[in-house]
Write a structure and sequence with these properties.
The protein is 45% helix and 11% strand. It is mainly alpha-helical. The protein has 2 domains: 26-95, Helix Hairpins (Orthogonal Bundle); 104-194, minor pseudopilin epsh fold (3-Layer(bab) Sandwich), CATH 3.55.40. A 3-stranded antiparallel sheet has the order 2-1-3. A hairpin with a 5-residue loop joins strand 1 (135-141) and strand 2.
């Protein structure tokens, strides 16, 4: 029997764990990336091992077509949760990369859609602060290519709605609890200091 080779691998950070200090501490980054994200990656691979006809497809494609996959309902939930956790974190690390530079076109679009970057940040922050329980807040392009802000629970992805993720904030407690404890609002405020694309 051929041993399954993990198709989905934990992406290596392009920056050090302490690169986002003091906004996000190094210990949180290390545990979040090496433990939490690795677990999603491992669990996603474990469920996809059962579906060799699917496990060569990009993770984003699987999540985007989640409802049409020929898998059991139990495994569909696992793919939503574990695969969602895998791809959501992939984007999260990318958008916080200190090497990022301002995306002038995105800034123009945000200003046109929300009135200003400041107003956009205010709306996004309200969505993230007000989200009950675990989940993510998103800036996406909808099916009409318009920018939208909303939050989704758990590891749900905008891809399942036919939307394209642009920016995301992890509001699960493991993303901030070591430094901020229950102070989600403070975490969100400081998180903006890691975003250089807008």
């Amino acid at each position: 029997m051929v041993k399954f080779k993990n198709m989905y691998e934990l992406p290596k950070l392009d920056y050090t764990f302490d690169a986002l200090e003091p906004n996000i501490d190094a210990q949180t980054m290390e545990i979040h990336h090496d433990k939490h994200h690795q677990t999603y990656c491992n669990n996603f691979n474990a469920v996809m091992e059962k579906y060799p006809e699917l496990n060569t497809k990009p993770a984003e494609e699987l999540i985007k077509n989640l409802n049409n996959l020929r898998v059991s309902e139990e495994d569909r939930k696992k793919i939503r949760n574990q695969g969602g956790g895998y791809i959501n974190h992939n984007l999260f690390w990318e958008i916080m990369n200190p090497a990022n530079t301002k995306d002038e076109r995105l800034v123009e679009e945000i200003s046109a859609e929300f009135g200003s970057v400041e107003k956009f940040k205010e709306i996004f922050t309200q969505s993230a602060t007000g989200h009950f329980g675990s989940g993510w807040t998103w800036l996406v392009r909808d099916e009409e290519n318009k920018l939208k802000i909303y939050s989704l629970p758990n590891q749900d992805s905008p891809l399942t709605l036919g939307h394209t993720p642009i920016l995301t904030l992890d509001v699960w407690e493991h993303a901030y609890y070591l430094k901020y404890q229950n102070r989600r609002a403070e975490y969100i405020t400081n998180w903006w200091n890691t975003i250089r694309m807008i």
